[in-house]
Amino acid sequence: MSPSVGVVVSWWPGIAVALPLVGVAVSAATGWSERRRASVLAGLTFGSLLVALGLIREVLAGRMPEVHLLHMTAQLWMVLRVDAAGALYGATVAALGLLALTYAFGYVQPGPRRARFFAFFMACLACTLGVAYAGNLLTFLVFYEAFSVLTYALVVHEQTPAAIAAGTKYIAYILVGGSLVLAGVLLTFFLAGDLAFVGGGFLPVDAPRGQLLTAFWCFVVGFGVKAALVPLHGWVPDAHPAAPAPFSAVLSGVMVAAGAFGIMRVVFDVVGVGLFTSLGVAPWLTAIAAVTILVGALLALGQEDLKRRLAYSTISQMGYLTLAVSLAGSGVMAGGLVHLVHHAFMKGTLFFCAGLWIHVTGARRLGELRGVGARMPLTTAAFTLAALGMIGVPPLSGFVSKWWLGVGMLEIGAGAALAVLLAGALLAAAYLLPVVYAAYFAPTRPGAATGAGAASRAGGATPTGDPASRGAREAPWTMLGPTLAAAALTLAFGLGSHLRGFPLQLAERAVLAWFGGG
Amino acid sequence: MTHAGPMLVLLVPLAAIPLLWPAGRWGRVAMGWLVTLASAASFAAVAAMAPAVVAHGRLTVSVPGVLGRLGFALDGVGLVFALITTFVWTCASLYAIDYLQHDGKERRYHLTSLLTLAAMIGIVVASDLITLYVFFEWLGLAAYLFVVHVGGREADRAGLKYLILTLLGGFAVLTGALIVQGMGGGELGVALALEPGSETMRWVAAALLVLGFGVKAGVLGLHIWLPDAHTAAPAPASALLSGLMIKAGAYGILRTVAGLFGGGPDAPPSLALQAETLALAVLFLGSATMFVGVVMALWQNVAKRLLAYSSVSQMGFILVGIGAAAYLAEGGSVGWTGTLLHVVNHALFKGLLFLGLGAVIHATGEGDLRRLGGLWRRMPWTFAFVVIAVGGISGLPGLNGFVSKSVLHHALAYAEGHHHLVALQWAEWVFTITTIGTAAALIKLLAMTFLGSARADLGRPVHEASWRMRLAMGAMAAAIVALGLRPQLLAPVLAAGVEVYAASSAGVLGYVTSPIGHAADLRAAATALTLGALVAWASARWRVFDRPPPVWLSLDRLLALAIAAGTAAIRWGLAERAAFEASARRLFERERDAVLAATARPPIVGRRLWLRLRVQTLAAIERLAANWELAERFTRQLGQRLDESRRLDESRRLQREARLAHPEAVVVPGSEELRRAARRRIQRDTRDLSLNVGVLFVVWLLFLGALWIVAS
Question: Among residues 19-78 of chain A, which lie with CB inside 8 Å of chain B?
Fold first, then answer.
């Protein structure tokens, strides 16, 4: 840890986590008008975002806000402590959460399930923030498990047979993963007797190699389920299409990233770079990440269902994070952290757009999107922007993260990893551009049954004919606004990537702590 | 000198974009004028900076905070490109107003036009490789909208081909830029310093950059997108694509070869050697490109395709110029003069040719030369402009192409005299032959369009182009004549450009002042024109080019063949591996016996469970072997289907040719079903092939990973 960082006691991390928890009670409160409830929820999340941004300021000023939540025994306690990586991830969670919440006000249908959705959504948000700000492994585990389980209610929200099946698959995967993480935490406690995150790691170097390896693989496999490492990714392509679009966005943008974030924490704050390298596990992790990137992207190519396609894209893109961790170079790690943030907003935009298309035209499949560009120009423009960002077209944010990943890889001479990175980006073009093409250029088939059935969801006039002939009709602003905002962030993070307080600076700060100023 | 100009000129077209919507309310003409004015304003802005560039050499400005740091600089080379870009853009935009009148998608066209103009300007004012890459990628993606503008199946296919190659090229440039950045370089004006042990990486980076930019420049082998895309786009967009945007690729190659990997006066020998080799490679690439391009152009019977192949060939001239100039290093002033002058000239005459033939297509609705003819009476103005452009490109003395081709020829001769490489002698012959071929191809175009009598009933009255179209073409024709008679008009700007990479520009004025003064040049031009006319006549007389080009000449087919060969090789490899497989089976059996022998049942596991476990393990191993056989069978089937689809493709092409030759022939009933079936089959094959390649790729990757782990 760099000496300039000073721990200060501050309640703000606790407040950031607590504000959405208040929202849980608000969602459950009966007798409130929908409008009032919505504004209070948005206000609470906005407050949480403001606190998260304030914490970024604190971290940049060289302070490390810390608050103790609970002392169980002399060695076991729960603590929130905000370092650069946590502040970055926390702000991403809060910002994407706010966008998705606003979007959800328009997307989630009124009815008895609406209150449940918001209650669980807020709880998930709180716990994910807890994961971001967790100061030791125990806190991390508690929040991680909590939000993993809470997510189930959101995956099965629509209660269709497909959603229930996806939920069952999800919970089975996640519980097994979670128990492996628990095993890892226990082993770590046994080996080190301490659980607080320290830049550079705290596992004793002289511990038996077999036990260290077991602990490490427990963590990687456990978190790998959440991070959708191939072959542990089975739940991802089912859960995403089943969940409501705003939650798919959050699930894909920050919750899958929580798994990668966990791997990051374990490698850099528990095991430490030195021990990680000497254990000899890095090449294996690299191979797994490379396979994840390529297989995820190749599988995405064949998907007709848009949300499924995007889910596979998430698998592929989250592989970059694991790849960055496994290479254990300071430059490439900074690129990886930046990619976490940038990917969240790009993928958020993509899922928001997919949701808008479903909401307005009922189009879920690629073939049904023909001519939708003429009808919903703003939505399609946002999708195009985010898709180009995912491919890494300058000057969008995806370019920045891929650039820094690439520069970092060349720094440590990992040419093969660079080839994987570029192949992944090329495959991203191959699976995302057909969507853009279908929306803008594909000839519309007269009398195509686009959304004739599902359009009743929109509640408006029953559309007839193909989408292009129906004239422009965008979704209401509660949903379009967050979509455009996320797309704008994609552009802003690209253009302003080097400004103070933007992800790159924080990522460099985080990497400094992990690699000891090197 | 610091000067905000290079960045501000980039903002001119961007600022016009939001004005498109209010202008659209005034009508389509207002939108067209807006774009024309924006292009003219960019031209004025660039021209206003010219004196400062001539005086100070290089204007720089950097914008911190955007993508790290975007750096802009305008030097002499960039100035030449920027001037001609904005000038031709103005003319093409003016022309587009009337050309697009029944189009219905004008706003998208004009939006694309402004976006690509900004990207073009961005490319030539970029001062470092990252900024250049940003605008290059932007240009490539935005120009896609030009290619698919007309819509329909042809345009879609051309667009897909274009997009795939552009993306691949973009990634090559990105990788090159990453490597260059990693070696501590990136400023275009500064040669990349040599670090010991980095020679291989330098080669990789240089090759990636040249190939990546080469996609855009239409270098031989990477040009396969170009004829399709330039034909599919509307005429003014073709003029921009063919006259200007492919120059972005040449510009990138120029900066790579002469700037980043240039030797410089005090370079160590190994670096100078590399620079020289790279320059020669570009020179020979250009040589091959110019020759193949012109042969293919001669073979075309569709006006725009002919022009597109001619563009490929002309890019070869420019690449030869770049190669020769870089090869001569500080002594390359004659090469740089020829290259820069030819960039300007080609933009003018190729732009004008596309606009002129566009006017013909607009008036007749027909782009096939075999159905045109005798138009000079109906379209005298257009005829006159096209004659000037054809004269320019064929090197008629008194027009601009003569000057630049003569200077390029001198440069090639100097390069040959430098180390007396025999191969350069050959390059000079290729140069001469290509000049003849160019004249022949363009004379063929001119004759078949405008001369003789009409070959087919076009079914509508033919009208002369509108005044705006004539004004646009007239401006370019005037520029061609002016630069032919008085090339020294450009001398100060050229001198500024030449000074960027050559030691002195003292001779520039001499090369361009008295173009008609050299008897040898005149003789060469006269020979080329005469022989060209002869070739054009003879080929028409004996119908040499009526048959489609031989199949082995088509690069598309070569690519398909390569893929088929790859598949066949895999198939062959699989067949040859029967022995290997037998040994593998033996190995498996031994393994199985070993498993059976070594795994005695542990006492805590029940016998039944143990048996089941063991049976399942063995089954899993067995299944692996079976999968291998399955993959082999699948590959063999795929190969067969590929052969079949190639045959179908071939018969389809023959049918098309037959239909074109005999349009009156009745369409064979049922051919539609056949075609559809063939299409479905080809789609399926493509899908299977990509799947196969993907699986092989992953397997190969796993194999590599395993090797690596075993090795380390």
Answer: none
Q: Chain B residues with CB inside 8 Å of A298's CB? A: 694, 698
Looking at residue B188, its amino acid is: L
Q: In terms of residue numbers, what domain contains A45? A: 6-444+470-515
Q: How far is B637 from chain A (nearest CA, A)?
A: 21
State which residue of chain B sits closest to A296, comparing Cα positions. B698
In a domain, A239, yes or no: yes
Contact B343, B250 (CB under 8 A): yes
- For A241, other C-beta atoms within 10 Å of its C-beta total 22
Closest to B709 (Cβ–Cβ): which among A283, A406, A418? Answer: A283
Question: Do B159 and A290 lie within an 8 Å CB cutoff?
Answer: no
Q: CA B668, CA A385: separation in Å to the nearest integer?
A: 46
Is residue A144 in some structural domain?
Answer: yes
Residues of B within 8 A of A410 (CB-CB) are 178-179, 181-182
pLDDT in tens, B548-587: 666 555 666 666 666 566 656 655 555 555 555 665 566 6
Partner-chain residue, chosen from B69, B141, B709, that has the shortest CB–CB distance to A393 = B141
Q: How many beta-carbon contacts under 8 Å exist across A and B?
A: 85
Residue B621 and residue B591 in contact, taking contact as beta carbons nearer than 8 Å? yes
Output the six-digit token pair for A172. Answer: 């089975």
Structure confidence by residue, pLDDT tens digits, B272-284: 888 888 999 999 9
Q: How far is the C-alpha of B710 from the C-alpha of B712, rounded, in Å?
A: 6
CB contact under 8 A, B67 and A495: yes
User: How high is the ipTM of this complex?
Assistant: 0.83
Determine the Cα–Cα distance for residues A340 and A338; give it in Å rounded to an integer.
Answer: 5
| Cα angle, residue B7 at apex, residues B3 and B11 outer, rounded to 5° | 140
Q: Give the CA count within 13 Å in the CB-facing half-sphere of A336.
A: 28
Across the interface, whether the CB atoms of A287 and B141 are under 8 A apart is answered no
Mutate to test the interface with B, among A303, A323, A427, A441 (most CBs of B within 10 A): A441
Phi, psi of B64 (to 5 degrees): -75, 155
Q: Residue B702: its chain A contacts at CB < 8 A?
A: 287, 291
Tokens of A86: 């946590």
- How far is A378 from chain B, CA to nearest CA, in Å? 15
Residue A220: pLDDT over 80: yes
Count CB neighbours of A511 within 10 A. Answer: 26
What letter represents residue A338's amino acid?
V
In a domain, A1, yes or no: no
Sign of dihedral through CA atoms A206, A208, A211, A217? positive
Give a yes or no: residue A461 inside a domain: no
B54 vs B46: CA distance, rounded Å: 12
- Type and span of the H or E element at A71: strand A63-71
Nearest residue on chain B to A393, alpha-carbon basis: B137
Q: What is residue B417's predicted lDDT score, i.e. its pLDDT?
A: 83
pLDDT of A4 > 60? The answer is: no
Q: Residue B148: closest CA among chain A residues belongs to which residue?
A: A441
Task: Find the residue in A nearest to B171 (Cα).
Answer: A422
Q: How many CB atoms sit inside 10 A of residue B181's CB? A: 18
The region, left, alpha or beta by phi > 0 then psi within -120 to 50, assigned to residue B329 is left
CA neighbours closer than 13 Å in the CB half-sphere of residue B534: 7
Q: How many domains does chain A have?
A: 1
Interatomic CA distance for residues A372 and A467, integer angstroms:
6
B306/B230 Cα distance (integer angstroms)? 10
Q: Which residues of A touch B690 (CB under 8 A)?
A: 301
Per-residue pLDDT at B689: 45
DSSP annotation string for B165-191: HHHHHHHHHHHHHHHHHHTT--BTTSP
Contact B77, B37 (CB under 8 A): no
Largest CA distance in chain A: 72
Choose among B377, B355, B376, B363: nearest CA to B479.
B355
